[in-house]
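BUG-367 | component: ligand-complex export | severity: low

The export step for guanosine-5'-diphosphate jobs runs without errors, but we want the raw record kept on the ticket for reference. Input record follows.
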Amino acid sequence: MLLDFIGLSLALAHFTVPLAYYAYIVKYYRRPWDIGLEPGYKPRVTVIVPTYNEARLIERRLDNIYSQDYPRDLLEVIVVDSASTDGTVEKVAEWCRRHPDIAVRIVREGERRGKGFALNNALKYCSGEIIVVTDADSEWVGRDCLSKAVSWFSNPTVGAVSCVKTPASSGLAGVEEGYRGFYNIMRVGESKAWSTPVFHGELAAYRRSLLEEIGGFPTDIGADDSYTATRIALMGYRAIIPGDIACLELVPSRGYHKWRIRRAQHLVQHFWKILRARHKAPKRFKTVLYAETYLHLFNPWILLAAAILLAASAATGSLLAILLLTLGLALLLFKPYRTWIATQLYLIAAAVRNLWTRELAWEKTLK
Ligand code: GDP
Ligand code: MN
């Protein structure tokens, strides 16, 4: 009976906190932006594409950047490659010969030391006032995607801008899609409240002066985008995801679980690392930062604890525990619930895996 009671309380706590937080954020999501923009703001922009064995996708990525309506004379692209063995660099060089009207620089590293390290290397060659990082396996939706992202920097309080995501293929049983709709609302709502602590590698733009102030990208954790954005938000600037900047992301057809766990590992690393600096959060950022930290680091374990207690109680014949567990399983028929549970399992697996590997130079997943 006591086990049932504690198990049920933990399960309720596990679902109540995120629901309450969701209700809190949706209020902001519905509000207008409190960030005014200056029309005509056109700074120099550097787009960095980090690559490791992206020969299959790199031309498509460059084509998509090339198709943007941002003034070419204000745009510079840097491809930073970490010793790819599949001919990525040759593909880029060939592409450049076919497109002499855009400035592209190739930075080659002799050894692969991770994405963050490569980005810092690229930073040395940047001339832009705004630095935009974009992954090779992504696509910006619309020709004005870059222009829209850059326009937010016309407000001096904005330090970093990212995109919402739509998966390009619907992934495993629609899990990826379900996951995105909900999280995109959260990211935009958090941005309107103050800032979001979760950024996306498909388009992550930063004011360069702030990047320099924080010493560039982290090299000891995987989530370079989210961590850098959060550091900027902690300095008192806005790190935002406006809802109208959309990017497609290729979702792997094979190795989906492994991919999700590795990415969850990076997020967990980011929230652990930022924990030390949490007291610096501006007042308007505190609730978001604390809630997301809690949801990523602690809340999944409460679900696990509840499941274990109820299972133990069910094993001793408690009808209530059996009923609750059956209900918990039956609800898996509903996609949002299923998506939520899957995410909790990825976060738990990620925290455990982080004990022995940080996955800073991860295996390429075929997309
Ligand atoms: P995911 O988006 O988290 O699944 O990670 P990806 O495998 O798509 O990697 C994100 C981007 O970083 C891609 O453009 C990769 O080619 C690039 N990347 C990954 N590892 C390295 C690295 O060690 N060096 C460089 N330069 N780029 C890397
Ligand atoms: Mn990717």
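Assignee comment: Attached the raw record above. Residues 135, 137, 249 surround manganese (II) ion (ligand 2) (CB under 6 Å).
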